Amino acid sequence: MTALAAVVSLLAATCFALCAVAQHRAVGQMETTQAMNPRLILLLIRSPLWWAATAGDVAGFLLQAVALGLGAVALVQPLLVSGLLIAIPVSAAVNKRRPRRGELVGAGICCAGLAVFLAAGHPEPGRDSVPVWQGMILAAALAAVTVVLVLVAHRSRGRGRAIALAAAAGVLFGASAPLLRLVATRVDDPLLALTSWPLPVLIGTGLVGFLLSQNAFQAGELPGPLAMLTIIEPYVAVLVGLALLHEKLSTRPVDVVLLVVSTLAVTAGVIVVTRSRGNDAAPTHLPPLAVTATKASDTGTQAPGAARPVDAPGNR
Predict the structure, then answer these.
(1) What gap in Å lies between CA 127 and CA 24, rounded to an integer?
(2) Continuous segment of H or E residues that includes residue 15
(3) Which of 2, 123, 167, 178 is the most buried (most CB within 10 A)?
(4) Which of 240, 206, 196 is nearest to 64 (CA)?
(5) pLDDT value of position 33
(6) Long-range CB contacts (< 8 A, 24+ apart) of 201-210?
């Protein structure tokens, strides 16, 4: 079951990576909006590419649910980091450039750290039900962290704004994984799954996280926000899995040391990716008018002819 969960997790990572590239390209051609502004979604629903990417996201989500039904959160979520190795070169190819050395090195460090984490952690599933009061504490904590990160994004521009929004989305997506496992393990009793507290909290965190991730992809080039989102998500998922679901990791001294080292390695890899030169640049696939509009919106002004979303060929 563990091996099957790992395979399904890698398939989900592939879906999420390809969809992130497509969504980044779609949102990059839209008028810049404030964080948590649902108007961005109203603009995006006009884009066929965004709809295709969203359908792929749904497929990835279903694969993730299957994997979480087969294995521990601490196994499934870290494997999603491997999507960086796919998303970075694909994003570079779509934008007609070569992957930057920092992006590739950082992604490689992340995945190497991931491999050590999984080898040393020996993650084991925990309980399949959680009291309502513990769920409410989780929801309140998520709301507080999200508000703080959105306020940071509101006061930032460029790469800083993208990374803050991606961190907020990563926190929500990470917490969604244990909730998804609670729902997935109750599929044999649909009435219980539909009426218990994890489902509405899962829907809320998922929708808000999705909106924040679209804002993050719009605010900067893909590698920076994607790396932040990709690594924050498993961190939060593992922590919530340990605290809420009582999942277990190896406590042998040598394994604990390897877990710490691997966590630091993954963090270092993300820092390398997010600091890779060019993350502040406007997306290279935008036409000149769109680049001007994006820069103008960052400074609080409006470029001539940029009063409405820029429609690129194919309305991507």
Answers:
(1) 37
(2) helix 2-27
(3) 178
(4) 206
(5) 54
(6) 201/135, 201/138, 201/139, 202/176, 204/139, 205/142, 205/172, 205/173, 205/175, 205/176, 205/179, 206/172, 206/173, 206/176, 208/36, 208/146, 208/172, 209/168, 209/169, 209/171, 209/172, 209/173, 209/176, 210/169
First-to-last C-alpha distance (Å) of the chain: 40
Q: What is the DSSP letter of 187?
A: T
b/e string for 50-79 if b means 16 or more Cβ within 10 A? beebbebbeebbebbbbbbbbbbbbbbbbb
Residue indicated by tokens 């991507």: 316
Q: In the predicted model, what is the mean pLDDT of residues 139-163?
A: 87
Pair 139, 199: CB distance under 8 Å: no
pTM: 0.66
Residues with Cβ within 8 Å of 198's Cβ and at least 6 positions away in sequence, in order, are 130, 135, 179, 182, 183
- Is 314 exposed, middle or buried (CB count within 10 Å of its CB: 0-12, 13-18, 19+)? exposed
User: CA angle 82-187-62, nearest 5°?
Assistant: 30
| Mutual angle of helices 101-121 and 223-244, in 10-degree steps | 10
Mean pLDDT of all residues in 105-112: 83
Across 268-282, average pLDDT: 63
Q: In terms of C-beta distances under 8 Å and separation of at least 24 residues, what long-range contacts does 22-25 make, across chains too?
A: 22/49, 22/50, 22/52, 22/53, 22/56, 23/50, 23/53, 23/54, 23/57, 23/213, 23/214, 23/217, 24/91, 24/217, 24/222, 24/226, 24/283, 25/49, 25/94, 25/283, 25/285, 25/316
pLDDT value at 31 more than 80: no
Tell me the pLDDT tens digit for each residue of 51-80.
888 888 888 888 988 888 888 888 887 787
Q: How many CB atoms lie within 10 A of CB 30?
A: 25
Residues 6+ apart with CB under 8 A from 212: 35, 36, 146, 150, 165, 166, 168, 169, 172
